[in-house]
Amino acid sequence: MGSLTALGALLLILMIIVGGKQGISSFLSMVINFGILFFSIVLIAFHLPPIVVTIVASVILLSITIFWSSASDNASTTAFQASVMILIILIVIIIPIEYWARVGGFGLEDSEELEGLSMYVGISFTKLAISTAILSSLGAIAEASIAIASGLDEITIQHPKISSSQLFLDGIVIGKQIIGTAVNTLFFGFFGSSMGLFIWFYGLNYSFGDIINDKVFAAELIAIIISLIGVVLTIPGTTLMMSHRLKKIQDKEKSESGK
Amino acid sequence: MWTMAFKLKSRMTWIQVLIVVIFCLVAVFLTAHDDSLYTEPIFQVTKVTNGKVTKMSDEFHNVDYYHQQLLSGHITNGKYAGKHLKIQNAYSNSGAMDHQYRTNQKLFIVLHTSPKLHATVKDLKRDTPIIFLLALAVSLLFIILKFRGVTVISSIVINTILFWLAVKIDHHNNGAAVIPIFSILAVIFCIITLFLVMGWNRKMLVTLSAVISATAITILLTLLVFGVTHEKGMYYESMQYVTQLPKPLFLAEVLIGVLGAVMDEATDIVASLATLKQERPELSKLQVFNSGRQIGKSIMGPLINVLFFIFMAETLPMTLLYLKNGNTWKYSFSMNMSLGMTSSLISGIGIVLTVILSSLFAGLLIKGDER
Fold this sequence. Notes:
Chain A is mainly α. Chain A is built from ten helices and no strands. Chain A folds into two domains: about 50 residues, no CATH class; about 210 residues, no CATH class.
């Protein structure tokens, strides 16, 4: 048995112990997410437009991550709508930034690994950088929107008569609590995944100017800041969706009782 | 009165938007005029002349186009400031290692003085877009989080400085003690971050002990699995940017990578359980533990996915390049994605263990009168 399989089995067992059925579905959601991610790469390799493939894949990935979590129907629907909205906003920010900063492709630091590989494959690496940045933000957006939507759903269950503007204010309060720690998840993930690069920079005496203009570093930093912006926007985004939904339900009830 | 408050609020929003725009523009302006801070010569492109285009294909039937371009412009800093130059550049449509340059871009160049002054392009100057994006993120944090934004940003800044220090110490030890160094760093990270989020109290200490023990057990379990499976299928040679022994570096990367998620989760669980115990002091230790498990099982899935996407998305370009170079799916996966997948799985184990340990510690240690 390979290490990967063994670790996977261990994770599955632990997840079943903690979550039972929910544990199995959380594990499956990761496996299926991987399948979709890999399939998207294969589709791009067959020259389908990278950004379109990424957007379609992202919506599917978000729906799997959100609807397979244990959030209530109301919370997960709201979280899904909000995260798709955030996804669109992020795409609008990412595309010009990537064309401006041109971080697609590989840097000098990658030279050794690229030895013997043909680099002229006819697929735009700038577009791939856009795909990478979008994909790496998905988990963070999904997690933040589920957390906020679940919190707000709890409030609407306990106070069904709450006004939508009051719910909006509550959402911002809940959001603030969640975001403080969600930002840490992102940044430590970033520190961990680029530790080798940081050690490389230090070892080769890169100056601050060298680092901030370095293609590989810039690509990683852009991806993480885009995720950060996504998470921050999730607060007003999810809250807006939830209070809008509540207003619709309350209006409907009002008109029904008026009849 | 309500409409007045509303008007005031909406005016505030407009002022905020204006401040953000000005802040971002200032950031852009400053970095667009910081050429004199660099020792490397910078070249401003003022005119681009397109040259000939060649179609090329490789042994794997990949078709690409190779373009020649002549860049005219002047040097903006250093000894040769103001000097006009023409530089040859070539780029492909895919642009994996090369770039098409446009007018108004600034480039770092390498100057050659013999036989006469000429230059080659090194790379694009990227500080302006990077700082712009940073400015945008910081201002959004402040607008939405208000004063809490200060805590969030200071925690990021302090942690970045500490991380850089650890990298420095690691380098001076030639990477011999990477795991001890980053384990100590991990403990310091936890203390500072949790202090900033929760303050110094019993709840924070409970969270801290849950985080540290969950992470430590995760690393031990990973080492155990590696021992049992003889690290079969671990392609350390595929690790990127490795300047020291890869295996300990990999473990240190995972250790730091999972820490944020584990803290996030433990904070959530311990805080909710403390509130629960306060509202219903009659709950037994086992009941508290079970409530913790209930909370944990709903957050663990999304949280594992956060790290999964961070670890996996960045492998996309290299995997694609492998696929386009005629490698099989299995080989492309093994050489590029398997380490990311391993990191995700180890992180997952850490996240699940955190559910158990933070519920356990909260059940045992938190009393009803705790706030």
